[in-house]
Amino acid sequence: MFTLKNYILIGFTFILSSCSLLGDKKNNTANEVFNQGSIDPNTGLNNVGYVPVYPFINNVNKPLDVFYGYDELIYVVVENDETTIDDNEVLVFDQKADLSYRFTIPGATDFTQDRRLHSYVAGRYYPDKVGSPSINLAAIYHITGIGSGNPVYLDTLKHFQCDESRRNTSFRGNDDIAVKFTGLATLFDNTLYVSRTGPRNDLSTVARPDNGVLIFSSQGINIGYSTGLNPLESSIKSSVGISGLATLAAPPQRISGISTSRNFFLALGEEQNRNLEFRALGISVTEDPDQGYIYGENTNFLNFDKTKADRFMYESGRFKKPEDIFASPTENGFLFITDSGTDSIYVFSNTGFEGVNPPANSTFKKQVIVSFGGSGADGKASGPYNFVDPTGICYFNRTIFVCDKGNNRVCRYRLNSDLQ
After folding, report:
1. Which of 283, 289, 248, 288 minimizes the C-alpha distance to 268?
2. Which of 9-13, 126-130, 242-246, 347-351 has the highest mean pLDDT?
3. Exposure pattern of 149-168 as b/e (b: 16+ CB <10 Å)?
4. Closest to 88 in 3D by CA, of 68, 63, 107
5. What residue ranges define each of the domains in the chain, with the CATH number in brackets?
6. How confident is the model at residue 23 (pLDDT cuts 50, 70, 90)?
7. CA 323 – CA 340 distance, rounded (Å)
8. How far apart are CA 38 and CA 174, in angstroms?
9. Which of 8, 74, 258, 407 could form an SS bridge with 93, CB 3.0 to 4.6 Å?
């Protein structure tokens, strides 16, 4: 059987040997790849980094999100036409990055899958009895069979009725139209987290603030909300302008060893008119016998130990416009963040130290910064280490997948120390 591991090794060999893709070895792009790929454990910073894994998934029109599923298929959400929601699609690729199926889902922006192989897609729907037939509202489509090419729609979680606190409230017109579902993630027990943004954030009403995270059971019942997060102000437990959401439960599929933590991570990139000091957050979830689950700051990220790292996720103003965040499910996992404001991706430890561990035999003891991106030396942002408006990101089998929206491609990278 042709596995992803086989394909990555072939792809890396292809990088070293191909002239048609990278030119000869005097080509600047080729030199950049070779420099990233050479590693001396005693040189520290400069020679540790991510190398491209070819082929990239090209000719995907404005990719918004990517998810490597528990079924080991690659799911990519594409926008196609920014002027309409009617032709957004979910593209399904096999491990060789060959397109298998494609499905149209109105306004699709985000994708996730639970351990039952049930898929969830954040999109829009056209409600009845709210006035104009052109009005659309936020929705989550619950689907099975999407990886086999035979999707079965089990349920649609529709704003505003899917929120238990809104069951007895009326349609709010433009305020409800403005609400968006901006992130999806699941837990070990198939609980679904959905991040939401919107204009109504009055803490004194029965209805919950729009800015926050809704929690659903595996049966699609709204069982909670991120009470305790601040929907109005910047802080280390803010829910203002959530653009991405991640949990510690992620593929690959396994019987044991999956994280049972309910903690999650947020990227806050939706509201650019707000001066948010912190735009990537770790949220701690604790259970109280009387109050249920309590959502608050994760104090692990407040450790600014300069002997272990030079940069930290909780530095003030660290990000401009983070689009997505993903947590690798390994014991010593990493957080991956895309930032369209800097056209870059960032890599942090699971305690917020920027970078990865130095090579085992290195004399360098701090985290090695491996974040990369930007417009590149030629200013065209089309090289293997450059991005234009990167959006979705995920991680599987030591490989990062990045939606490079402006270049209409999904890029793949692997840490060069993993290739030795």
Report:
1. 283
2. 242-246
3. eebeeeeebbbbebbeebee
4. 107
5. 55-419 (2.120.10.30)
6. very low
7. 7
8. 55
9. 74
